[in-house]
Each structure stands twice: as C-alpha cells, then as structure tokens.
Amino acid sequence: MKALTFQRYGKSPGLGITEVPRPVLKPDELLVEVHAAGVNPIDNRLMTGAFKPVVKLELPATVGSDVAGIVVEVGSRVKRFKPGDAVFASVFDLGRGSIAEFVAVPESVAAHKPANLDFVQAASIPMVGLTAWQALKERIGLRAGQKVFIPAGSGGIGSFAIQLAKQLGARVGTTTSTLRDYDAVLGTVKGDAIEKSIGILKPGSSIVSLVGPLDAAFARTRGLNGMLRIVFCLMSRKILRLAGKRGVRYSFLFMRPDGGQLADIGELLASERIRPVIDKVFDFEQAADALRHLAQGRSRGKVVIKIK
User: What is the residue-averaged pLDDT of the chain?
Assistant: First the structure.
C-alpha cells in the first residue's frame, strides 16, 4: 500500500509517498481504509527529531495521526465495531501513521464517525478535539462562568478549543487586552507568549501548555529516565518560577488517544454545537505540500489530506 513516510530525522527527512506493507491486525484492532487524514504541527516537529527521546518511531515511519475511514476488517477481540462502519480516531504516539491507504487502529481509540460529517471533516477533529478536551475539561476543569485565554484562535487547535470552552459556559479571550483576572490559559503559541500570559491570571489559576516547555511531571508520567527528568526540569524552571510567584499552576500536556472521549466529542459535532473548521484540503499526491503549508503557520482551521 502507499503511505507518506519520512526516512530520517532532521531538516531533510526524505519525506515522500512510498510503498509499505499493509498492516497486520492484532486481536484488539480495526483495519481502517483511510478516506482522509488530518495533519497537525506535531507531525512536522516529529520529523525534526524534537521529540525523539519521547516518541518512539521505527524509521522509515508513516506520518500523521488523525484518521477517518471505513472499517474493512476487525480483530478477534473487537466488540464495538464491524466491517463497513465509518470511524474516526487518533493514532498519535502509537507507533504508526495515518497518511496511508490503510491503518490499524486499536478499538480503544476509535469512535463512530458522526453521520453529519463527511470524512474530511471527521479527519480534522481527533488531535485538536482530544487535546482541547483533555486540557480544558481534565487538566483545568473549566467551569461555567470562568474566563480562559486561548491565543491563536484561528488555528486548528484554537478554533476547536474556543468552541469547546464556550460549550462549557466559559468566557473566552484571544488577546491579552480583552480581559483580566483569567482563570486559565491554554498555551498554543511558542516563544515567550506563555510567560507573558502569567500577568493576566489570578492566583489559583492554571496554565496548560501544548507547546512547551516540557516539565519534570511530564517526564515522570512518560516513565522517562532520570537524565531527561533533569533536562525537562531545567527547561521549565523559569516558567515554573514565574508561575509560582503569582500562585499559578503550570503543566505541559501531551494528548493521548481516547475513543470514549472522542465519542463524546462526536455527540457535540452531531448536534452541531461544535463545527469543524477546515483551512485547506490536499489530495494524497500533495501530502508533503500539506505539511509544508501547515509549517507556514498561517492556517485558519485544519489542514486535511483526502486519501480516497
């Protein structure tokens, strides 16, 4: 089968469409014929080697994590899905990629595709949807009436997170001049933007960063060695010190695939309380162009590759 793969880490990763073996199913997996695959900034960052100590990939590796498609085969232990079902999922951090003709998806991370979404729309959701859900609902515990700051609101994650925050009854600001005394910040912009955002938070509030710096707590949850824990501790020392002075909690979030949460997100999409925001759709043959387009940082919504 065909897949978008990269050969090595670095500035010249050898990105291109190649022939790879069709996945062999484990008992708890679905074989999904991919109709569309979303792309995310982490896809480009993985190829640079930035997360090499954290995310283990066997090179050459297939790129991508967001997938929407049709189940064509199920493993012997699969209970919730059958061939012919339309599904969507994230396979991020599972040692496989989604920009391919087929992908093996663990049953635990898959959900039925909302009937009102086409495959391109569905493929735009998993990474941004689960990231926003886990940041705002799990990590922050955002409640009605609270105020959350979400910069870069026109991007893939921002456009979804803003909609979810409003569904939770929160007030959303996207520039630091709009509000003060925020209850939470969702860090989506690299650089010193997160440090600057501390000034708009009230004591007891939270910063959840999706872009770093990584911290020692993240290293512990990943079971990383002592040396990496020290490195991450040093990387996050400044932001933790600044946050501590103001009585603010800081943490770094790495999204985890979760089919149950994705099903809950699917209900919001099915009722149109949240809508997909698509920036641009590329054909499979243009998959490398899609990643280059995303890397420019000017996308307004999600970039998606139409496979079938």
Answer: 94
